[in-house]
Each structure stands twice: as structure tokens, then as C-alpha cells.
């Protein structure tokens, strides 16, 4: 995991929590300060296939990616509506079964 533009505060926090985290996990966390060479970082750490064209990648432009994501979400619109209704029904059912657990603030 890479944390970009980390402040020196993160270094202090990392030093404090390091004794409580397994070394293998802690080695996976890499802090990068604001003065780093981002082009070198992108070359070494992130495949070009995962970056948009604006960042030197082959994934497509940011506008294209936004349009694709919006289309995918709109294609799932019916699912989101049904899922929300399901949550409402489950909540209403819970209220009927456990009226004392639900507190209303008037």
C-alpha cells in the first residue's frame, strides 16, 4: 500500500503503531512524501495499463473512464433501486419485531 503526499505526521504515527503490527504487514505500507518523483513512481510501481492517458498510461482518458463508469452505474440502476427497497423492508420488519430497540428523537 502506498500513501502519497504523506505528511511527517504519518511518520510519527507509523513509528507509534509499528510495534503493534506484524513486520510483514508494516513492510507493505510505503509512505511517499510530497517531494517525490511521481513519474519514476508511476514507472516503477503502477503498470501503464492501470493509468489513464493523462498520466502516461494506456487505460483511456479521464473523460472516457468517467463516461464508462457512469454508464456502468446507470446500467445497474435497477439493482440499486431494488437493493434500497430491500433495506427499507428489512428495516421496517426489524422495527415491527423490535419496537423497543428503535428510539425516535422528536
Automatic annotation (TrEMBL):
List where this protein forms a coiled coil: none
MF-aspect GO terms: phosphatidylinositol bisphosphate binding
Task: From the record, give the transmembrane residue ranges.
Answer: none
| Domain of life where this protein originates | Eukaryota
Identify the GO cellular component terms for this protein. membrane
**What CDD domains is this protein classified in?**
SEC14
Residues forming the CRAL-TRIO domain are: 1-63
What name does this protein carry? CRAL-TRIO domain-containing protein
Name its species: Chironomus riparius
Amino acid at each position: 500500500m502506498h500513501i502519497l503526499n504523506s505528511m511527517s505526521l504519518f511518520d510519527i504515527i507509523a513509528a507509534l503503531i509499528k510495534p503493534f503490527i506484524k513486520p510483514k504487514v508494516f513492510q507493505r505500507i510505503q509512505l511517499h512524501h510530497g517531494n517525490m518523483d511521481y513519474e519514476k513512481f508511476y514507472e516503477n510501481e503502477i503498470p501503464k495499463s492501470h493509468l489513464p492517458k493523462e498520466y502516461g498510461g494506456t487505460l483511456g482518458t479521464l473523460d472516457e473512464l468517467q463516461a464508462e463508469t457512469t454508464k456502468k452505474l446507470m446500467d445497474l440502476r435497477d439493482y440499486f433501486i431494488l437493493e434500497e427497497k430491500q433495506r427499507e423492508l428489512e428495516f421496517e420488519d426489524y422495527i415491527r419485531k423490535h419496537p423497543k430497540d428503535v428510539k425516535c428523537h422528536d
